[in-house]
Amino acid sequence: MKCRRCQATAVVALPSHNSAFCAPCFLDFFSRQVARGIETQRLMSKDDRVLVALSGGKDSLALMLELSRQGYDVTGLHIDLAIPGSSRAARTVVERFCQTHGFRLLVKDMAAEGLPIPRVKEVLKRPICSACGKIKRHFFNRIAREQGFTVLATGHNLDDEVARLTSNTLRWDRAYLSDQGPALEDGGGFARKVKPLWRLTEFETANYAFLMGIENHYAPCPYSAGASFSTLKGLWMDLEEAMPGRKMDFYQGFLERGRPAFRAVEEVKGESLRPCARCGCPTSAGVCGVCRIREALAEKQA
Ligand code: AMP
Ligand code: FES
Ligand code: ZN
Fold this sequence. Notes:
Elements: E1 12-14, E2 19-21, H1 23-40, E3 49-53, H2 58-69, E4 73-80, H3 87-101, E5 104-109, H4 117-123, H5 128-146, E6 151-153, H6 158-170, H7 174-177, E7 183-184, E8 192-194, H8 202-211, H9 230-242, H10 246-265, E9 274-275, E10 282-283, H11 289-301
Parallel strand pairs: 3-4, 3-6, 4-5, 6-8
Antiparallel strand pairs: 1-2, 7-8, 9-10
Bound molecules: adenosine monophosphate (AMP), FE2/S2 (inorganic) cluster and zinc ion (ZN).
């Protein structure tokens, strides 16, 4: 198999792009896809101060490295969830990665915040993943706003986005279908959020991470046995194999034609946001979800 660009021996085959690339041409392809994803959806500019949420997984580390290579002003943010058997390894990987590349890194420690995830899991009756997600988003937003970052970037890739879109479609959730996409505008106390890897699959990001020598964190979260959207991702893997290119067509078609249709009919929610009485973060209730989790923990302690 030969590289489509330079005819050298190919190391990565991409049937959905009807292509195969050698290592340097693949890295160039990856960079162009990230740049195109940022430009076509107007995600951000070189003037932005970008806070990149780093979990320790390959996607967010690849994102950080590539944005820096493209000349963006990036700072990492890691949320240490204090989960035994997983969080320490993730944090070490992120710290080592940032040190190796000379990246600025902020770490927010949930144990020091009084919100270690195992304790939250013990006290709450709801599934921990949704509470954990809420806590992470709360700190992403709060730190971005407090420290003057203009954009918060996450490592979500095309597979994540398509699985989420499929889930929203299966439920015909009009509110989510009118809102999903690679950018969430700021406003109402929320920082602007972007997903610059939306044009790249998990496979492509994994290859980039491998070729760039990124060490990443493999230990999955012990609480999320069925990793997010794993069934839908499996179905899409089969579909993409049978119909190469369909995944990207489906998502791009949604952005161009599906989402505007849902936006046209979805009523603007009268839900007004105001600052949380405890922490000042935007909420539609008097006290935000994270402060309510704090209260539940304090009650159990008393
Ligand atoms: P996940 O929902 O675990 O697939 O993560 C999606 C994205 O959220 C990752 O690519 C990261 O950008 C971000 N993220 C997840 N967990 C953390 C964490 N503990 N600290 C910082 N960012 C995170
Ligand atoms: Fe939050 Fe697993 S990472 S519950
Ligand atoms: Zn609050």
